[in-house]
Structures are given as structure tokens and as C-alpha cells.
Amino acid sequence: MSNRLQTDQIQELDAQHHLHPFSNHQSLRANGPRVIVRGEGAYIFDSEGNRILDGMAGLWTTNVGYGNKELADAAHAQMIELPFYNTFFRTTHPPVVALSRKLAELAPANINRVFYGSSGSESNDTAIRLARHYWVLMGEPKRRIIISRRNAYHGSTIASGSMGGMTHVHHHSYPLYEGFRHVMDPYWYGESFAGETPEAFGLRAAHAFEEEILRCGPENVAAIAAEPVQGAGGVKIAPDTYWPEVQKIVDKYGILLLADEVITGFGRLGRWFASEYYNIRPDLITFAKAATSGYIPLSGVLVGDKIVDALMEHDDDFNHGFTFSGHPVACAVALKNIEIMERDRLVPRVSEETGPALARMLARFKDHPLVGEVRSVGLMGAIELVADKKTRRRFADPGRVGLICRDHFFREGFIMRAVFDTMVCAPPLIWTGPQFEEASAVIQKALDLTLADVKGEITA
Ligand code: PMP
């Protein structure tokens, strides 16, 4: 069967039977999805035989790259030994114990326990319930409000979707679940006043939390929740003044801090957890994605001693959990994934080599006529496309130019994601010089092609 025929058939069956996440089904039907059939190292391959450099690590996920046989072998061995058993009814198993011990070693010092799920959304729902349960146990049941940030992405379940701050996720399917408030995100390029320094802006953005705490009444607030770096919101990197000030506010009001490390966990900023990079002390850290490099679903919440102590000291059930909490195969793969990352020094390499290489690569494009700002931290970065560099004027119809650019990347064999008109990347941690050079050449070409497409709309 020719490639084209095979592709047509897969696309047709997909159109008939598959509902995709986060999609406009009408335009998906009209254009058809690209069929990805294989992955190897830093590259994926589509059904037409095209090799594509994956600048998004799947979806912030495949940190050790594709086609890793060691991970497949670990899954195979565990499936033969014990493919599944639950951890509900006074049972446990070796892989979940070994992984928990390892995560306690990698996590910040005040964290020694793990609660598991299978997705980032589940881990955030778990953290929300743990935070509220904690305050009930502490005799302060009124503390239910969780303050997060606009543009945050925390998941798609009703609670995690409500904790997230994306209006397009909120508005179409449900009213917000109760008890969530949202404050500004620390997005200097987009939200600072004229002449406001990043430092001053970082403090202002942090104080938005305090203002909201006071508006709600501190006695009603359970926690602040935030991604150390907003990922799906467009790789928004807080100025240096932001996190120390947020931590001060958390300490001042004695509330909990929930760090959503679903993207930043497992090495993306050159530390196992970004909480360490930013020197914050969360009581709850949620993780998913790269815990297994995406080879099998696994998520969890790293739970601080303060909360665990409260659970231990009270004769009260925490009635929450998932059939697949601590799935043995997922735990075995996560353990092997961590072993590989440690052996190959993938995490320190982000600080020493790959992160600086990404920053250098992006810096090459800051003078391009379409580019308002480039930014990166560790191995996540962004290129903002604007209609006017001087005034930071956006293009009409946000997202249109981002998609044009994304399609040029795709056609040139490279993946970056468009968040409206911001092009974001988060390569796997295994990239070396040749991948950065390849990406750089494609970005140059794709930006030039995009510029040609929108030439009439920009102020040079
Ligand atoms: N939190 C963050 C920061 C995320 O980026 C995501 C997913 N992109 C989630 C939570 C939700 O994870 P999942 O899609 O696995 O439910």
C-alpha cells in the first residue's frame, strides 16, 4: 500500500471515530491530522516518511527522547512480574515503594511522600482536595479558596480547569467550580506599564496575590497555586523579584503553596524541580508528563511533611484515589527514566549546555522584524511575534499569525507550538549541537516566510 493511500485511510478512520482533545473539530475534519507513526531520539516520523525535529518534546514530555529501549524493557519486565495491583486496601508493591523513595530523595527537603495519579489534571485535583482537607483537619474548614493566575493551565477536569486561568477553557462548558480566584500572571512583556522595569513589575505581580488574599479575607484562603513558569500560557517567565516576594506572602499569611510542576518537573530548568531553581518551598508539588518521559501515563503530588503530619495525627479518612494510583508498570518506567536521566547527566546538562544553547539560538532572532521578544529559562523558550516591535502592537485576530508560522515550521520539518502569536519550544533534554543548528536554520526560514505572508500588516 502506498504511503499516501495508507495516510488517507488513517485520516478517514480518524475523522469517523476519533474525537481529539483541544480541537476545532470542523477545521480538523477539513484539514485532516498529520499521522505520526514512529519516533527515534530527537525526531518523529510521519506516515509520508517525513522526519520531523520535535522542539516540543511531544508535549513537554519526552525528556529522554523517542525509541528508548531501556524504558520499553523496564515496562516489559514489570508487566511479566506484576502488571497491576491496586494500592487501596492495605496493599503495596515494590515499584511504587522504590519510586516514592527516589522521589523523596529528589524533591525539596520538606517533602517525603507521594500520592499518585495518571495525569496532570488528576494530580492537581488531588492537590486541591489535599489542601482543603488539610485545613479541615487543622480546624479551619473555612479556608477553601485557592488563588491562582490568569492564563495558567492546570488541567481539564472541572476542578483543575477552574483553578487554571484560561478564559477559553472556562467559558464554554461549565461554570467555575467554587472557591477559585485568579490574579495577574507575571508577564512583563505583555502586561508591564510603559517604563516599568522587570524588577518593579515582578513585585507588582506578586502583590496581586496579597491584594486578593486581603479581598477574600486571609481566614478563607487555603493556598496559592502556580506554575513556576507558565508553560501552555506562552512560556511566561517571572522576573527575578517575583518568586521571593510570593514566598514571603505565603509565609506571612501561613497559607499553602502549590507548585504545579507538570511541565517544569523532571529537569526542564536544570534542577529536578523548578521549586529548587526558584528557591521556593511549596507544600504541594504536582508532576506528570516527563516523570516517565511520556512512555506511560504517571502523575503525582509530592506532599510536604506539614500536610502528611496532619493526616497522620488525625483518625480521619482521605477518601480520594484512582484505580491506577501507583500503577506498577508506570512506576517501574519512571524509575528507569530517572536512572537514565541521572546516568546521562541530562538535568545538569540543562544548566551547563542545552539551556545556554537554547538561549543563544533564540537570541539570534531578537532583531527579526516580526519578533517582539525572545525569552527562555532552562530548556523552555518563546518567540513572540508582533506587528510592531517598538510599540509591541499585536496582530489583529490573535493566533492567526502564530498558526501561519507554526505551519511553516511543520513544512520545514520542525515542531514549535503556537500559543496565540507566541511560538514556544521545549526540546527533549537529549538535544546536542546539530539539533540546535537544525532548529535555528528552520526558525530563520519560517520567520522569513511568515514575514512575507504578513508583510502588509507590520510596522517596520
Ligand atoms: N499542569 C500543567 C502546568 C500542564 O501544562 C498540564 C498539561 N499541559 C496539566 C497540568 C494537565 O496535565 P494533563 O494533560 O496530563 O491532565
Describe this structure in words.
The chain is α/β, with parallel strands linked by helices. The protein has 17 helices and 15 strands. It folds into two domains: 144 residues, Aspartate Aminotransferase, domain 1, CATH 3.90.1150.10; 274 residues, Type I PLP-dependent aspartate aminotransferase-like (Major domain) (Aspartate Aminotransferase, domain 2, 3-Layer(aba) Sandwich), CATH 3.40.640.10. Helix 4 packs antiparallel against helix 14, helix 15 runs parallel beside helix 17 and helix 16 crosses helix 17. The chain is globular, with a radius of gyration of 22 Å. The model has no long low-confidence stretch (mean pLDDT 96). The structure holds 4'-deoxy-4'-aminopyridoxal-5'-phosphate (PMP). The site of 4'-deoxy-4'-aminopyridoxal-5'-phosphate has 15 residues, from helix 6.
Spatial strand order of the main sheet? 4-10-9-8-7-5-6
How many β strands by DSSP?
15
Rounded average pLDDT: 96
Strand content: 15-25%
- Please report the first level of CATH classification, the CATH class of the largest domain: Alpha Beta
Counted up, domains total 2
Indicate the multimeric state: single chain
Return residue spans where pLDDT drops below 50 for at least 5 consecutive residues: none
The termini sit apart by 50 Å
**Which compounds are bound in this model?**
4'-deoxy-4'-aminopyridoxal-5'-phosphate
Helix-strand category: alpha/beta
State Rg.
22 Å
Q: What level of helicity do the residues show?
A: 40-55%
Number of helices: 17
Q: Specify the overall morphology.
A: globular
Q: What name does CATH use for the topology of the largest domain?
A: Aspartate Aminotransferase, domain 2
